[in-house]
Specification:
Blueprint (H helix, E strand, L loop, with lengths): L1 E3 L3 H23 L5 H15 L5 E5 L16 E6 L2 H13 L3 E6 L2 H6 L7 E7 L7 H14 E12 L7 H16 L5 H14 L5 H11 L3 E8 L4 E7 L20
Parallel strand pairs: 1-4, 2-3, 2-5, 3-4, 5-6
Antiparallel strand pairs: 6-8, 7-8
Helix pairs in contact: 1-7, 5-8, 6-7
The structure holds S-adenosylmethionine.
Length: 261
């Protein structure tokens, strides 16, 4: 089911990304230039150990869900949010083909989380390759809003560009572009590379590890843990944990330890 409630202006911006940069982004995925394979393989293990059977996994800026679909544990409910209708249509097709219960919502992800009517109802939240669009204050605010709707003991995972300690944004852009220009050769045309470069320079504003950790802890998460660095130090994955309820156990039932891969 795709629910539509997008803000027109944002949809237009994202529509532009979808038509101009989406094909190039998919080529990056196929050639594993941005290390999706490594990150999503680890995410699969994380989901298996942290999401209980029947649990809800919310994926903000889910795109076409092509990476997560192979690592979602059997029996979870997937809630994907994205502004781009064509991406959600592709996601719907993939999720149906593997029999994952799902709901897809066409909406700007910050307003979706802020206005989500229920509290403490999501077991795990993911935002991959999309948080960097927000400025620092908006990232912190998003963490506060995600914490509100996570269940006690719930997890937020982030996969994105991460600046090395002491990196300026320019230094990080150089680090990322070294990776992309080396590995993109032979996979993407010069025009596609230029389009991606333009998009990245305009919209990528990653934080450092200490920056993300401080944001998560200030938002009220109990713990922040760095999980994996990839792509010549330009990309990373971390998780932030919401405090458990009193007496809540660490056990995730073994029945969930199966993936659709
Ligand atoms: C680079 S893709 C990442 C897709 C997916 N998360 C992944 O890991 O491959 C960025 C996605 O974010 C969506 N997006 C960008 N800004 C958004 C926003 N403010 N609200 C909702 N979706 C957004 C785009 O439509 C696109 O599908």
């Amino acid at each position: 089911m795709v629910t539509e409630s997008a803000s027109p202006q944002k949809a237009e911006d994202v529509g532009e990304f979808f038509s101009s940069a989406w094909t190039a982004y998919k080529k990056c995925l196929e050639a594993n230039i941005l290390r999706h394979r490594e990150f999503f393989s680890l995410l699969g293990k994380e989901l298996n150990s942290r999401i209980p059977p029947g649990g809800v996994v919310m994926d903000l800026a889910c795109g076409d869900a092509s990476n997560i679909v192979g690592v979602l544990p059997e029996g979870v409910h997937y809630l994907g949010v994205d502004l781009a209708k064509p991406a959600l249509d592709l996601a719907s097709h993939k999720l149906k083909s593997v029999g994952i219960m799902h709901q897809l919502v066409q909406e700007e992800f910050q307003s979706f989380v802020k206005n989500y009517p229920d509290e403490a109802c999501i077991d795990g939240a993911l935002i991959s390759y999309s948080l960097h669009h927000l400025d620092s204050a908006s990232k912190g605010k998003l963490f506060v809003d995600i914490l509100r709707i996570l269940k006690p003991g719930g997890t937020l995972w982030v996969i994105d560009g991460i600046r090395q300690y002491g990196d300026t944004r320019d230094r990080w852009l150089e680090r990322l572009w070294n990776l992309m220009s080396c590995e993109g050769e032979g996979h993407l045309s010069p025009a596609e590379m230029n389009g991606l470069k333009e998009h990245i320079w305009k919209s990528d504003f990653p934080e450092s590890c200490p920056g993300y950790a401080a944001m998560a802890l200030q938002a009220g998460f109990e713990m922040w843990e760095f999980l994996l660095e990839e792509g010549k130090g330009a990309l990373g994955m971390f998780r932030a944990l919401k405090r458990k309820a009193k007496g809540q156990s660490d056990q995730v039932c073994a029945a969930s330890n199966k993936t659709n891969a």
